Amino acid sequence: MAHLSKFLLLGILLLVGTESHPPKSEGIKISTATTDYGIGKTQYYRNNSVAVTPLAAGLTPYGHEIEFKRKSGRIKAKYFATNAVSNYTEWRPYNDVVLVCSGAFTNDYETPMGITIDGGKLVNKLVDTKMDGLVVVYPNGGIAVSNLEDGNLRYGSPETVADLRSYRDLQGFINWAAQERATVFQTQLLAYDNQLKLDVPKARTSPAQRRLLVIAKNAMGEVLHLIYNITTSEYLGDAASNVLRYANQERGLNVVAMLNLDTGAEDILEVYNDYGFKVTEPTGPVPVANAVNLVAWSYSLN
Hints:
By secondary structure, the chain is α+β, with helices and mostly antiparallel strands. Helices cover 19% and strands 36% of the residues. Strands 1, 2, 3, 4, 14, 15, 16, 17 and 18 form a 9-stranded antiparallel beta sheet that branches. The chain has a 4-stranded antiparallel beta sheet with strand order 5-20-6-19. The termini are far apart.
């Protein structure tokens, strides 16, 4: 009986230990929210070139997906790396702004982290080896993303293949960007070519609201720019995994790249309707006047 009691006690301890340390979740399923959830429905702007869709996780609001269709060439992205507030304020009256939000992460000197070029002008030459996402914003409003880890950045015509960890290749790229008036910034690459680029369990350090930039192609091969504004407090790894699953399985999108945008002290997000008024949702808590750097999308009839 004494031996039996010991085995029973051991079994109870093992059971308690198992229940007190449940396995980590494999992620949640995101879906398009409907009016049944009391959240709202998709709003379309700029001749259906922009779609703002509420998202839910079950019956819980999760955030919004803001989709920009690039097919017509009328939706254009622009990045403001330096003097962001004044440059954006000067640019805005001549452009039909759809969305503006905080962009790259910044250092203690309020300079964007990683290599940064603003309209061909070099802002920061230091390549950050911890961030593999190199974003090129072209004057025509297009966005291209490269994985710096691959060491095979392709740019220009005729095409040049470069490894920006090489000083010679880096200088050649900087010279090209100056000639093309290209804008370049660096940030965390969360997914590339439909594959996650981070270790999800290791990216569970501090939950927070998230904002992700996704470059994708739909079933017809059309390029889309998408912002996922996640208002639920999420670990970065889980947010990236959930959004990639939603984009692939629910939307049927081919995710070219997924990037992390700053939602820290400069957590800025403003979306404007067809009449130029800021919508109440989605929105960020910080005003544009506090910006260090910004990324914006505008609509042009030309």
